[in-house]
Amino acid sequence: MRSPLLPIFLTIFVDVFGMTMIIPVLPFFAQHLGASEVVTGALLSTYAACQLVSGPILGRISDRVGRKPTLLASQFGTMIGFLVLGSSTSLWMLFLARVISGATAGNLTVAQAYIADVTSPENRTRAFGMVGVAFGTGFLVGPALSGELAERYGYGVPGLVAAGLSLLSIVLTSTLLPARKPLEVPPQEGRLGAFQRMFQRATPRRRLLEFFFFSLSFATLTGGLSFYLQRRFSFTMKNVGHLYAFSGLVGGMVQGGFIGRMAKKMGEHRLALGGFVLMMVGYACLGALFTLPALLAVVAVSSIGSAVVRPALTTLLTKSVGPHEQGAVLGVSQSLSCMALITGPLLANSLIGRGELAAYGIAAAVFAAAGVLLGAQPPPAEITGS
User: Fold this and answer.
1) Which among 39, 106, 282, 307 is placed 20 to 30 Å from 173, CA to CA?
2) Is 80 exceeded by the pLDDT of residue 151?
3) What residues contact residue 327 under an 8 Å CB cut-off, 6+ apart?
4) Are 98 and 216 part of one and the same domain?
5) Contact 49, 342 (CB under 8 A)
6) TM spans, by residue (predicted)?
7) In percent, how much of the chain has pLDDT > 90?
8) What is the rounded distance in angstroms from the CA atom of residue 2 to the CA atom of residue 117?
9) Domain assignment of residue 279, given as a range
10) Same domain, yes or no: 174 and 196
11) pTM, whole model, 2 decimals?
């Protein structure tokens, strides 16, 4: 691992640890405050709707003023959002917390751009795979801990702990992350212009579409998973947290131990295609699950799939443009991810609210199938020097 990457990985881990702490709790918290499944879906989508506005802006700002100050500003907003969430006593406060967090949520986009700055194209998949390890480790510890805390001490406690972790990430970024000179980038157009510029070119368009369907499939799954597990298996918050921990363990093992070698042997294109197939198969089986061993098997398969798709596609995205467009293309990809995170939870919770648990899994599988269809086409050209 190159020396500039260790601080960013530590920062990402602490950020993800904090963010994952609220994943299993938030739907139950909203339900406790009187929200229906549809309203809960809207709550989950609010974060992404606000992030949709801020993502490309933060990407361009980080290109101009540097990654470190942009990351610090984003982390500060995240901390405030968690504080409001942890203090919430009514549904409108939960919505306010998600608005604040979403409007300042640029942590991952900026961190990915930083990694793209300091790694060569041939080593980038391994570097992004280590980001996946940070995610997997965060999912391993964060949700399990939050379920325990919420059931013992109250729904708001995980949010307050997450705020403390956000403060720690600010300290780590301030003291450990080397500041890099901002790239000399030409004046860039607004968000719509960035979309138009990327989608007019075949290579970034293809990769962005693949990333969108990955995000939509994954967002549909995770957006409804807590209520699916509650209805099908009578899971509590603690049980949901433990399942997320299992998923994080599987994903972390894949990304930490195998992703670099797999990418060099198979190439990112085939790696992403295989991951999409595993996601599609796993999600399609959700409606037929009635036992815990079957659930764990399906979660393992789909977790392996998503664990290889994310770093492979992120690398392919950064290879599809020149070095001065890294922040822009990752900002556009973040916007597409936000669109998926708006749509997926609304769709998932609407289906689950009507008792259509099988349709919920099929919907996530269909979106993964779109990724399979795109990935089955010949790979487009890359800008290998990016």
Assistant:
1) 307
2) yes
3) 59, 60, 62, 63, 109, 110, 113, 183, 185
4) no
5) yes
6) 5-26, 38-58, 70-89, 95-115, 127-145, 157-177, 208-229, 241-259, 271-290, 329-352, 358-376
7) 51
8) 12
9) 191-378
10) no
11) 0.85
Largest CA distance in the chain: 57
List the single range of 154-158, 223-227, 262-266, 361-365 with lowest mean pLDDT.
262-266
Are 286 and 199 found together in one domain? yes
Is 383 domain-assigned?
Answer: no
Q: b vs e for 165-195, b when ≥16 Cβ sit within 10 Å of the residue's Cβ?
A: bbbbbbebbeeebeeeebbeeeebeebeebb
CATH of residue 348:
1.20.1250.20
Distance CA 55, CA 334 (A): 6
In this structure, the answer to whether residues 240 and 136 fall within a common structural domain is: no
- Taking residue 279's Cβ as centre, other Cβ atoms within 10 Å add up to 31
Instruction: Dump pLDDT digits (tens) for 301-343.
Output: 999 999 999 989 988 998 888 877 876 787 788 789 889 999 9
Q: How many domains does the chain have?
A: 2
Mean pLDDT of the region 201-219: 95
Grade residue 33 by pLDDT with cuts at 50, 70 and 90.
very high
Question: Do 162 and 203 lie in a common domain?
Answer: no
Q: Say if 12 falls within a structural domain.
A: yes
Please tell me the distance from the alpha carbon of residue 234 to that of residue 232, in angstroms, as a whole number: 6
Nearest of 365, 321, 49 to residue 214 by alpha carbon: 365
For residue 4, is it within any domain? yes
Q: What is the pLDDT of residues 120-141, one digit of tens each?
A: 777 777 777 777 777 767 778 8
Q: Residue 159: how many CA atoms within 13 Å on its side-chain side?
A: 22
The pLDDT value given to residue 1? 43
